[in-house]
Amino acid sequence: MIDSINKGEIFRFIVKPWLREELLVTVKNAVQRHELICKNQMLQVATLGMNAKLTKLNASLEEQLAREADQNAELERLNLALRENLERSVELCLKTMQTFHPTLGSQARRVYELAARWPRVCHLSPQEGQTLEVSAGCTTSVWLACRAS
Hints:
The chain is mainly α.
């Protein structure tokens, strides 16, 4: 009997003769304890199921983040390529102007170089600076070419 009590298989030990009220309270407490144990087991099963779902969702989220990181790296690479192409296009525009109209091309080059320094002096953002440089390089070349014709 002591071994069963120690293992928790017996809720409470009541000696004879017992009082009716004491027996009723003990049975009521035993029923409540049993219900709590059953609810606890159900909650543990539910928690394990939710943890499994959460693990799957976390794995899925990590995969999605990895894909987005790859996409961001690819976009950065493509943006860099576009930026380089734009710089080459502006340079081509200036060189073309210098080739066909050396004086006008030199003026366009000076305007472009001045515009390239403005972002640092005026504290412009990199995007604003790039817009200014491209505008100065291409617009000046086109304006000077129209003026020369």
